[in-house]
């Protein structure tokens, strides 16, 4: 950071950035100090940027008749250092992603130009807001953080939570406290007269959906545990997820796909609107789906499936040991040597099994289903269809070996090929191609950005409110701990 501070003054001709005549502070200093204070709504402690010290020095410089050169230099350089540090944190994050999440590969390639922007401060004030994420989710989480910070000081809410926590049997006689908590946290929820669902059940169901719990309408142990959490826990969760968004690109562009792994849902967005929204199946906890960024290169109709090394080791090898050639035949797996030549099943045994690659031909039983969306990346993660359609009806869908199964693969393929690629591609044509069981590659001229992210706080389907999500891989705790050390 020291080098960036020096560059700023070099580019500015070694003139003060934040001072005017007689060492009084300028308008830019006033704005920046206010913006540094507002960073508490980003879940970042403003004292990380020496806010109190800057405020005291500012008052001293603005009220004293005999300002010292030393105070002026200290204020100006500290302001520059704080501004640059804040801009960097907003654009790139407070901590390195790998310190918190070993499976975070989602690179942030945003360009950090804060030193150059400060050097041109007399031409245009470079607001810190320019470095925040353009992703709508970020601003939504930030507003929610401010709301929960207010709720943290709400005595009525605090008393209701305390009563619920202290109750020997919170399921009994807790209606009033539960109602207070839900209405405070979700003031937008409206109930309607309903013979099959009481007001209490409607409130609890809405709260469960808001909190990432299976919506049963009953005050089960998970629901009661969430209701009894003080607002500070939600603040930590919001802070952690704003940090994750800061690890991603600042600008997602007009067209992109985002898969929220813990939410287990996919959104295809264009011009700020959801064109497609569907459930997905993600990696189970022992084979977690990593967070990454890739571009969709092509759509494959009737894809063959080449078995990844992990699945070969953990699934196919044990299956072969038990069932031998019959296991491979049942699964439709065929072995190939390094030159791509087929290997007779009679030549395979437990000792040489891992020398070969294995493929499953297109067909109704193919693990990838009828459609595959290729996203070239080092981790061999992609989106695909599946013959296991029943999994999409489940609330918990962390069931795959790492890749992402999508609920509406054919609809998404038709949308991409017709609306994005502008080809004459209908559902009827796709049905005809699928029926052939022959592989067909549809290369995309428009490379669609795909963001696979781990966000345990995300917008609801209205885009107006935050939805808290079950931390399926248990990644929040470490990130919250690292942020709290700052």
Describe the structure.
This protein is of the alpha+beta class and 486 residues long. It is 41% helix and 16% strand. It contains 16 helices and 15 strands. It has helices at residues 2-11, 27-38, 51-63, 69-92, 97-100, 114-119, 136-151, 155-166, 175-185, 199-210, 221-227, 231-246, 309-331, 409-420, 427-436, 476-484, and strands at residues 255-260, 265-270, 273-283, 292-301, 305-306, 333-336, 342-343, 357-360, 371-374, 383-384, 398-400, 404-406, 440-453, 457-459, 466-468. An 8-stranded mixed barrel has the order 1-2-3-12-10-9-4-13. Strands 5-8-6-7 form a 4-stranded antiparallel beta sheet. It has a two-stranded antiparallel sheet with strand order 14-15. The radius of gyration is 28 Å and the shape is globular. The chain starts with a helix and ends with a helix. The model has no long low-confidence stretch (mean pLDDT 92).
What keyword list fits this structure?
alpha+beta, 8-stranded mixed β-barrel, 16 helices
How is the topology of this model organized?
Blueprint: H1 2-11, H2 27-38, H3 51-63, H4 69-92, H5 97-100, H6 114-119, H7 136-151, H8 155-166, H9 175-185, H10 199-210, H11 221-227, H12 231-246, E1 255-260, E2 265-270, E3 273-283, E4 292-301, E5 305-306, H13 309-331, E6 333-336, E7 342-343, E8 357-360, E9 371-374, E10 383-384, E11 398-400, E12 404-406, H14 409-420, H15 427-436, E13 440-453, E14 457-459, E15 466-468, H16 476-484
Parallel strand pairs: 1-13, 3-11, 10-12
Antiparallel strand pairs: 1-2, 2-3, 3-12, 4-9, 4-13, 5-8, 6-7, 6-8, 9-10, 14-15
Helix pairs in contact: 1-4, 2-3, 2-4, 3-4, 7-12, 8-9, 9-10, 12-16
